Protein 1
Amino acid sequence: MRSNSILHLETERPGPHQAAAWRDAVAPFWTFAIRKEDVADFRGHSQVHHLGNAILCRASASGLRFERERGLVARMGVDHILAQLRLSGRARIAAGGERDCAPGDICLFDLSRPLSASSTDYQALTVVLPRPLFGADQGALDTLHGAVIRGETPFGRMLNAHLRALRAHATGFSAAEAAAAAQATAVLLGTAALGTSGDARAGAAPDGAPFLLLMRRFIEAELAAPDLNAETLGRRFGVSRSALYRLFAPLGGVSGYVRQRRLARAYRDLAAGDGRFARISEIAYRCGFESAAHFAQAFRAEFGCAPRDVRGQAAADPAQDRPLRTETWADFYDWVLRLAA
């Protein structure tokens, strides 16, 4: 287990050089845009701790707009939960609706789903946790992508204090202490998240088991099966059609979720090295699509480009299938991809 590894992003001069360094540092999570008139004065600073089964970041930056678009989500293929405590500055978040996030508020994001946001100059504490750390509360998190835990509530104030203390003491933790701190953070965030929605427990079985997570793992393993649908899931897990629809409603329904996961798998196959040599129709069939034409149509609707465009980029740039890296942040992308409970 990697624990207490630290990365720093600090440069003395604001401006285009610092904006480029920031772009490279945050590439595992976001693409971002800065107004042309703001580039000359752009500032971005970050310090990242790897705590073994969590990643903790203290960052500040000039105002910007950032997004996690569908292609980036598909390329990464991670299922982590990100919680961000705003220390200063305001953000407008678009993720299944729009919400404002003010200083003291805590925003929750599911990194397996797209989002966009705009922010003023800000400072923030961010923690990234693998979904399994949330245990029985995992299903509830599917309803809360983009949710905001208000800092003025009693529990919100306690979470503020916890996250600030986590950052203050993280460098002194042993590996076992870091793991315990990450687990405690997941418990607190899961409890707070459950309180923000009356329907939050829709994703969990009555006995508290992470039922929806089991179904999602089954879907990932069976993406190539042409009969992967609500009927198959109902028989496999003994769940009624109406219960399935309630479980998957936050994820776009059963068929919508299965299609999205198939397209994400296809995107990664096309962008990977072997995707340059496989026929597009072959990739379509092994990802569960019945025809190459239907696959191409769905792919363009999801990602805004044709399958051949993604494969063409991979063929033109042999490094395209490798994680984006920088000389000073060479391990960060790997940290995110390999984060596990």
Protein 2
Amino acid sequence: MRRGQRYSSNSSMDSSNLRLDHKNRKIAGVCAGLAHYWGTQTVFVRLAAVIGLLLAPHAALIGYGLAYLILE
């Protein structure tokens, strides 16, 4: 492993790039892409998205839509 290189279980996607994850997606790949970028498990990001949807649905939907456009 090179110096400064992160360990990644999914070698097909570079963790330094913020992008959608089409391989592990449920809806559009936003949560999976963010989880991969942050180096955390996808379930935690999806759980945060669901909690955000319950607490502030309009803000969560707008944030998800913007993230989809940015990550595309």
Protein 3
Amino acid sequence: MQKKLPFYEFTLLPDSEQFSLVFLDGEFKNSREVGNRIYCLYQLYDFLVEIEYDICENKIAGKVAFQPKV
């Protein structure tokens, strides 16, 4: 991972930059399949990002960033 980016600053970035950071600097943690969707969880710095993939459309359907409770 490169420099640490605070959660709030990450959420202010355009989606394209958020996806780039997740795929380049994020650490894949887990995935689950629900219907025709796959949800992949990534650790990025000190927060998590879940990417939702649409299997039928073969594209990203959504993204949620959140901070885990400690």
Protein 4
Amino acid sequence: METAKLLIVFVIMMILLWRKIPLVYVVIGASIVLAFLFGTDIIGFLNMVWDATKDPATIEIEVILALIMILELILRQQGYLERMLNALTRLIRDRRIVMAIVPAFIGLMPSAGGALFSAPLVEQAVGKSVSATSKAFINFYYRHICEFFLPLYPGVLLVANISGIPLTRVLLGLMPFGILVIILGLPFLFRVKVDEELATVPQPLDATSSQNETSDTRKNLIKEVFFSTLPVITLVSLVFAKVPITLAIALIVVVLILRHGYGISEFLKLARKALVLKTLIMIWGIMLFKQVMETVGSFDELPTLLRQLPVPEFLIFALIAFLIAFLTGQTGSYIGIAFPIIAAATGGQVNVHLAVLVFMAGSAGTMLSPMHLCLSLTIDYFKADLTKVIRMLIIPESILVGAAILSYIIFA
């Protein structure tokens, strides 16, 4: 019964989002409805609101997102991002490749809201010549390819920790799927048509102009790309050095403020311009919805209900991960809930093939979920149609899950 209530609420949320009701209103309204469906009184709901607000995860996400907004505006005001795009589009002939490289590069930073950082760069790379739907899809899709390769992402670390599988084996198991992710995105990328007259950056080097370019010019362009992206490269390096992402971004912001001579009043003006209150409230609403679901125990019946279905156990595990991921839009949620269930059901004998299958099923759930922070931020930035973007995502995500199921059947 509890699971049915949750699913009903989520179906209503999907309908409201399809009707183009802003996500911030939908998640806050759904939080209220869900809480009272489970018999919560006003005091109990206010306690959930307070718990969600003071949750370290909520505070961290809000701070990270605010710092990303400030960092992005500094880099834009000081011309870093424009110089990077100018150099890239002279080095790389196809702007569509630039459009994919940018979010993939930003994806080296495992931070919440990273899609908001890359979205303006994608916009600048191709301008108004590409539809909002295509730009939103490419920005969101390629933003997440690095999580299959890097040990920086908390999800991968959690999988290794909970399952007891060495981290290197988890990464090696996921790596082929990371390559497949890149390949599956290419048909969507290369069917995009870019009108050079409507794009906002200089023409790339073509066969004719390249004859007039010296090797020194190409070296200068490479140097320009390097130095214009140095703040982001430094940020990624700090994260690799295990500096907390919040501290790393704060350090880069401080260095840039000192480097470019921002005074206190100038910085305050910059912060007021950079911070988008609507976005920060939306993030708080998502965290409130997650808090309500966890507090009322809406997930408690889900594993038992799914086990009654006449399908193999490994598919049940994958379905559990997918549904939790789809309902929350958060990697930590499905890994933190699904993997302990799987570990308990298998007596702690989780092999790498099962771990990869469950991870891929959960990853597909997060990628298709309107609750996914990066998706909601991307849709909001480009003013794209959520249903159109999700329809585009269904094809590659279905293939990925199908490949993971086939891999498990063959190798497990």
